[in-house]
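Late entry, MU-OXO-diiron complex.
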Amino acid sequence: MISDKIKDILNEQINKEFYSAYLYLSMSAYFAEMGLYGFSNWTKIQSQEEIDHGLILFEYVIDRKSQVKLCPIDAPIFDMKSPVEIFEQIYAHERSITSAIDCVAQMSEGECDLATRNFVDLYLKEQIEEEASVSKIISKLKIFGDEKASLYLLDRELSKRKYTQHSY
Ligand code: FEO
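Prediction complete; structure with ligand written out below:
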């Protein structure tokens, strides 16, 4: 069993993960409209991974004999601009998710809930990877993205991303 405080923050995190899935899916649609199918693939796969993140939390709350509470998911909002500007928005979004996960870790320590604290390590590690991969794409876009040929090559690179299911 987990405390009410932990239950609430984990349910909030479930909502954040599903919001992230929505956000990436809407970005995927926008990139497809632009004809950037590799970028569209990358963001669509990210959306699938976010659903996994939400489902892992969902299963954890159930495994701890607590209650899942699914709240409405906000409509995704982002500025439909250039690829680099969209990836900068992605980076800012992931930084906010990292802060949210830090809060879960901090609260679970405060509540002496070591199982949840240990569980959250999966998300802390994932955030390091996500921030790093997004940051690398931003660097490439900043260095090469203004040239159409480079954008084409980067789009081709991002088209190779494959989905692998996350579980715990
Ligand atoms: Fe599930 Fe992108 O954090």
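The chain has one domain: 4-158. Will revisit in the morning.
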